[in-house]
User: Fold this.
Amino acid sequence: MSPLRLTHRDTAAGPVLLVAGELDFVHAAELRRRVERLVLHRGQCLVLDLSGLEFCDSTGITALLAARQRTLAADAELVLAAVPSHLERILTIVGLVRVFTLRATAEDE
Amino acid sequence: MSRTGEGPEPSRDGDRDHTHVAFSALLEDSAEELYESAPCGYLSTLMDGTIAKINTTLLNWLGLDREDVVGRRRFVDLLTVGGKLYHETHFAPLLRMQGELRGIALEMRTARGARLAVLVSSTVKFGSEGDPLLIRTSVFDASDRRAYEEELLRRRKEAEQARAEAEAAHRQAEADRQRLADALAVLQRSLLPETLPRLPGVETAVHYHTASPDRLGGDFYDLFPLGDGRWAFFLGDVCGKGPEAASLTSLTRHTLRTSAHHDPAPVAALTTLNTVLHERYSASGDPRYCTVVYGVLEPGGEGRPTTVQLASGGHPPALVLRAGGGVDLLPTPGGLLVGVLPNAPVATTRTTLAPGDTLLLYTDGLTEARTGPTRASLYGEDALYAFLAAQAPATAQELVTALTGLLKGFGEGLDDDAALLALGVPDTPAHPLPVSDPPR
Assistant:
């Protein structure tokens, strides 16, 4: 098991958070706290780059939902980028593919 | 060095005796002086205990005058009440019997009323005819030794008290642990039914594996009558683990039960649950949700098949193992996690169960179990479908038994809760099953 690694960078469209490692019961709270502290302006887009995500359980999905609420409250947008196939499968089962905006890569085309 | 020569040498021996006498005279004026001032007490009594002679040392210890003692008091008069008792019951009889006693602990009483711990040795002097004449007694001050013994006793009492306190603390901890276990057991009963009701013409089987050591799980199931011959059942999985998940589980279970009695339609029950969870959690910025399959079963009979209506909120599809072999998926695409959005879509499906068919609901603890030598890969739906295809057809109990074995095989790889609920229509409902094996 590898711990969660969060890397933050800013782009013109908004912050990009690289989420790598395991998003599980132990680590999901870290992501939630990090997203809570982000400065988000109206109309910006928060991108969670999940290309390095190795594992995500229900508490990880809760953290993603909390990020969605955080961006909605700021009149901003949330994008999940490079969602790994195992997570996309779960998001499909639970119906969340139609709630989240998914994009192939973190870079805005 | 060794003496040489054959005989003794008188002149030398004479010198030595002389030196010896002079040396002893220098230190002890007389035997009387030795008796009176010896570092221990001496006394002699008649056989009835009357003191005939007593030395100065002992008189000084006791603070008594010789003339008040000799011929006037008996040995027992010098003892404390306890010492007197012991003397009368043990010391004197033993001395009469054995003629000698050594190192007996007694307590003497001084003229000022203080106690003096002593060790007493006595011998009886016999006459030429063998008749007892008097008793000679030596008395050693044992207060130091008594103090040492008392210290030992005090320490032992302290140790015993410490042990008693430790035992009391242990009993208290044990009682607390038991009370907590009782409280947890009550909570667990609010999460899961203790037993499932018997359905006419339907066999049920469940299994629940909880990963949390306090047995407060995040998976749940239930089965209960709707009162019109139909039965409602559900199985689901709340997000998170431990006590927080358990409180969500409890809310979910009781909301579903209540709404089922209000409007048993699967969509209505899950919509109500969605509203309740969203209002309680997500709307306040603390999103919590569950996935759940909710169903209503109408037992068949008189040519009618058993029918099942299902609704799902983001839960893995239910499956049916058919009597003729094969597994049917009951997909419910579009159903969303319950509690996430204010108006979540609920997906529905329906099926019929013929004799020999078995419906299975499970939580993803089963398919998310980590497998492989490094526990890196997940067991997955495809492996589960293959496993089930190999089991079909199976009764509800056979199926749950097989899946329980599968879960056990995951060992440490099963790190989440897992729940199984199977509802099967027996192959020959009209004929009762044999109760016991035929004799061999």
